[in-house]
Amino acid sequence: MSFSTRHVVLAVAAIPFIYYLIAVFSSWRFFGRSARRNAPNPSFTPPVSNLKPIRGLDPDAYENFASFCRQDYPDYELLFCVGEEDDPAVPVLQKLVRDFPERRIRVLFGSGGRGSNDKVVKLARLVSEAQHEVVVISDSDVRVQPDYLRTVVAPLDDPKVGAVTCFYAPIKDKTFTESLQTIGMFSDFYAGILVARQLDGVKFALGPTIATTRTRLAGFGGYGAIDNRPADDLLVGRLIAEQGYEVELLPYTILTVADYHSLRDLLHKRLRWVVVMRHMRPWGHLGLLLTQGLPWSLAAIAIRPTAGVALGYLGTYLGLRFAMTWMVGIWGLKHEELWKKLGMIPVWDAVAFVIWLTSFTRNSIRWRDGEYYIRDGRLVPATPTNAEPAA
Q: What backbone phi and psi angles, to 5 degrees, belong to 2?
């Protein structure tokens, strides 16, 4: 390799460090400013419809659902939509109704739609059946604290805010796979979200929680307009932002119950998400190459194997990766146990790089028992009889 080529590679290998510095700065701006933000209006408690599309039984499903029945909120209803009456979640929902007679809980059967994204088709029905203007959409594996509804609804008091979303974290990591997912979430996914917010604003939402109104959803045609699209959470945030409203990202964390039975489960889910992003944002997906500090540092050492280069690149890589993960997870989101997992960051980065490379070889995604192609931004079942959710 020529002298000039080596210097080009060494220069490019330092680009991820710039991204890491931006992530540290973005995290400091977001969480520092959030600490100084005005307290929400305690009198703003409009009636809320809490919407949950259900398919199958998640771990600890009853406790997840019950946490929504223990909200410190004056007026709200809980709506569930299940595909079939023999869904394994139905007995759990029936017990929920019996145990919380003071709560308005409705269970709907069947979506009434025919879109390829079953989750979104169910959400379309839930929105149409909701009794209130303000809706809070949450996943079935979410568990919340009693202040949840007050917290996520409060920003909607500002007429400029069209939607609210927030972070999420696992309740407890029991396996290596779950710990790996957690460190990837805080060190990679959330860091990228905060960089995107700093550079371009919040033009997305995170699926575990979206608070908005039926009017804002109707502004882009509602869930019925995207019932054949993947990544509905990202789309909802984007389509509301395109109407001129702000999407508020809160420095607030809800809990999720991990359901990764094996490393293979994690890889499949992550690969599905990355393939969807490749189709929805192809140039942004390609640009992820310049955020991969570990492979670039190893490449720099390979072309110039000296102690100085090894120490400079690997030392800077590890220092900045630890710093940005500490800023996001420990300082910002108060996930204090995360420090025990910092040593897993290089493992996650290696896995994430392999997944990113693999995404260029895949033209389909797999969700549970269904296989889908993504064509022109839409989900197309690999077989005509497939109707599984893929978001």
A: -70, 165
C-alpha span between 97 and 390 (Å, rounded): 29
Whole-number Cα distances in Å, 105 to 108, 140, 172, 240: 10, 15, 28, 28
Fold of 37-260: Spore Coat Polysaccharide Biosynthesis Protein SpsA; Chain A (3.90.550)
Residue (of 233, 161, 168, 232) closest to 201 by Cα position: 161
Residues 51-105 have pLDDT tens digits of 999 998 888 999 999 999 999 999 999 999 998 899 999 999 999 999 999 999 9
State phi, psi for 112 to the nearest 5 degrees: 75, 5
Parallel, antiparallel or unpaired: strands 134-138 and 209-213: antiparallel
Tokens of 166: 């927030």
- Sequence ranges of the domains in the chain: 37-260
pLDDT per position as a tens digit, 124-153 = 999 999 999 999 999 999 999 999 999 999
Please give the backbone phi and psi of residue 98, each rounded to the nearest 5 degrees, phi first: -70, -40
Instruction: Using alpha carbons, list the distances in angstroms from residue 294 to 278, 290, 299.
Output: 21, 11, 9
Residue where the block lists tokens 């371009």: 200
